[in-house]
Amino acid sequence: MTERFDADVVRQAAAPRPTRFYKQIESTNDEGLLWLSEGVAEGAILVADEQTKGRGRLGRSWYAPPGTALMVTYLLRPAMGDLPRVGMLGALAVCETLEQLGIASAGIKWPNDVQIAGKKVCGVLPEARWDGGRLAGVALGIGLNVRIDFAATPFAETAVSIETALGRSVTRAEVLTALLARLDSWRARLGEPALFDTWRSRLNMLGKPVSVLNGVTPVSGIAEAVEADGTLLIRSADGTLERVLAGDIAMR
Ligand code: BTN
């Protein structure tokens, strides 16, 4: 499908918030962090058709070919105590957007990957901006596969795009409009327990045997619970409870 996706289309899809569109940029999160320091209003977004230094979690790079993904950074200025919930807000908003589009099986792989039937469709990267010890805000980066056919790639078993899951075409503009509505809605409730509760109810590994790599030695056991700041609690075979703050989780 040929889709027009430029500054005008993005501005219209995101109105009336401040919007920046880039045909190509290193990373929308980098520009977003700078924009926060310049005092931009909450809810502003940056969108790119291609990133040359896109970042993922845990220091990884994140790349999608032009025309295939929605790469957006949403800017917010949360209270310090709400910081742990910003990533949850992103993953939850994406799940609800997918449902609105007609995808029933969206879930969250801890901490904040969004999956459709166990395959990753979206990654979320919240990054805080500190100016002299003061929190200037957070750049909430979201990379959503819209139209990549992973079938003949090494990622066939692990990744999926919206169009493959839906079996029909969607435009990035329509996905963006729906996503922003869900982001704005949960942003207004960032301090409420409902956000954590709803995020937790979407996690797809609670109660199951998992292995989390967050260093040299994997932590293995049953994913028993999550704490309000997102920390994962894993019950290992000898009965001890391990607390995991970050890492890559896999089903065993
Ligand atoms: C992950 O899966 O590890 C997170 C991926 C986040 C990618 C998005 S794309 C828009 C924003 N800009 C970046 O450089 N990264 C995020």
Distance between termini? 39 Å
- Name the helicity range: 25-40%
Q: How many β strands by DSSP? A: 12
Cα-based radius of gyration, to the nearest Å:
18 Å
Bound molecule types:
biotin
Total DSSP helices:
6
Structural class: alpha+beta
Major sheet: size, sense and barrel closure?
7 strands, mixed
Characteristics:
alpha+beta; single chain; 252 residues; 26% helix; 29% strand; binds biotin
Give a description of the structure.
The longest helix is centred in the middle third of the chain and has 16 residues, at 86-101. The protein is of the alpha+beta class. Helix content is 26%, strand content 29%. 40% of the residues are buried. It is globular. The termini are far apart. The model has no long low-confidence stretch (mean pLDDT 95). The strands form 2 sheets. A 7-stranded mixed β-sheet has the order 1-2-3-7-6-5-4, with helices on both faces. The protein has a 5-stranded antiparallel β-sheet with strand order 11-10-9-8-12, with no helix packed on it. Helix 1 (7-14) runs parallel beside helix 5 (172-187) and helix 3 crosses helix 5. It has helices at residues 7-14, 28-37, 86-101, 162-166, 172-187, 193-202, and strands at 19-22, 45-48, 69-76, 106-109, 113-116, 119-131, 134-145, 209-213, 219-226, 232-235, 241-244, 248-251. It has 6 helices and 12 strands. Bound molecules: biotin (BTN). Residues 27-29, 51, 54-57, 60, 62, 71, 73, 123-125, 141-143 line the site of biotin.
